[in-house]
Amino acid sequence: MSDIIVSEVSKSFGREVLHSLSFTVNSGDFLSITGESGSGKSTLLGIMGGVLRPDKGSVTVGGTDIAALSEKELAVMRRTRLGFVYQFFNLIPTMTVRDNILLPLVLDGKKLSDYQKKFDELAMFTHLGGVLDDYPETLSGGEQQRAAILRALIHDPEVILLDEPTGNLDSENAHAVMTLLSDLNKKYGVTVVQVTHSEQGAAYGNRVITIKDGRLL
Ligand SMILES: Nc1ncnc2c1ncn2[C@@H]1O[C@H](COP(=O)(O)OP(=O)(O)OP(=O)(O)O)[C@@H](O)[C@H]1O
Ligand SMILES: [Mg+2]
User: Fold this and answer.
1) DSSP assignment letter at 105
2) What is the CATH number of the domain that holds 192?
C-alpha cells in the first residue's frame, strides 16, 4: 500500500509558505490540489515528491519517511517509486523522445531489454508510437506532456505527481492527458496527485483539496 501521509509540513522561503499541513492520500486516490497562484501548491507537490525538503514535519510514502532519506536514497526513490512530472515537461532537448523516456532506467543501470515490453505497452497507451525517434522540440505540447508522463511511468511507480499537467495545453490535448491519467488511475491503480488551476481538470479525480495562503481550506 502506498498511502502518502503528509504530517505537519511547514516550509519557508524567507517567510513561511506552508503552515503545518497535514492530510493523507490513500493508495488508489486521484487527488487534485487547487488554490490561487502563490498559495503554495507547487511547493507542497515538490515536498510530496521528494524534490524539496520540508523545514518541519514529515511525508511518508508507503511507510518510508522521505524527508529522512539521504540525497542518494531520495534520488532512487524519485526515479522508482514516485513519478514526478514538472510543469514544463523537463524533457532533454538533445535526446530523442525514446532516450528521454529510457533515461531513468539508464541512470539506474537497468538492462533496457528487460523493459522493452513495458516500453512498447506504455508507448501504445500514451499514443506516442509515431514520435519516439523525434526530438522533443518537434512535438506538440500534448505529446511532450505525454512523453514526460511516460518517462515517469517507466519504473512502475506507485504514485505519479504532476504540476499543472494541462496548464500549457489546448482543450483537446488537455482532455487527452486527463483521460490518460484517469485510465492510469483506474486501470493500473496508480495513485495520482495533480496540481491544477482548472475545475474541469480537478473533476477527473476523486478528491480535491484547496490551499489558501499555505493552509488547507
Ligand atoms: N525557490 C523559491 N524561493 C523563494 N520563494 C519561493 C520559492 N518557491 C516558491 N516560493 C514562494 O512561495 C510561494 C508559493 O509558491 P508556489 O510556487 O508553491 O505557488 P503555487 O501555488 O504553485 O503558484 P502558481 O499557481 O502560480 O504556480 C510564492 O510566494 C513563491 O514566491
Ligand atoms: Mg505552481
Assistant:
1) H
2) 3.40.50.300
Beta strands in 102-214 (DSSP E): 159-163, 191-195, 207-212
Which long-range CB contacts under 8 A does 179-185 form with residues at least 24 apart? Answer: 179/204, 180/125, 180/126, 180/146, 180/149, 181/30, 181/149, 182/30, 183/125, 184/153, 184/160, 185/28, 185/30
Nine cell digits for residue 64: 518510508
Q: What is the domain count for the chain?
A: 1
Q: Which domain holds residue 191?
A: 4-216
| Protein residue whose Cα sits closest to atom 29 of ligand 1 | 38
Q: How far is the CA of 41 from the centre of ligand 1 (A)?
A: 8
**pLDDT digits over 142-183, tens only?**
999 999 999 999 988 999 999 999 988 899 999 999 999 999
Q: Are 2 and 27 in contact (CB under 8 A)?
A: yes
Shortest-distance ligand to the CA of residue 213: 1
Query: Using one digit for the tens of pLDDT, what is the confidence trace for 58-104?
Result: 999 999 999 889 999 998 888 889 999 998 889 999 999 999 999 99
User: Which residues lie across from 61 on neighbouring strands?
Assistant: 4, 64
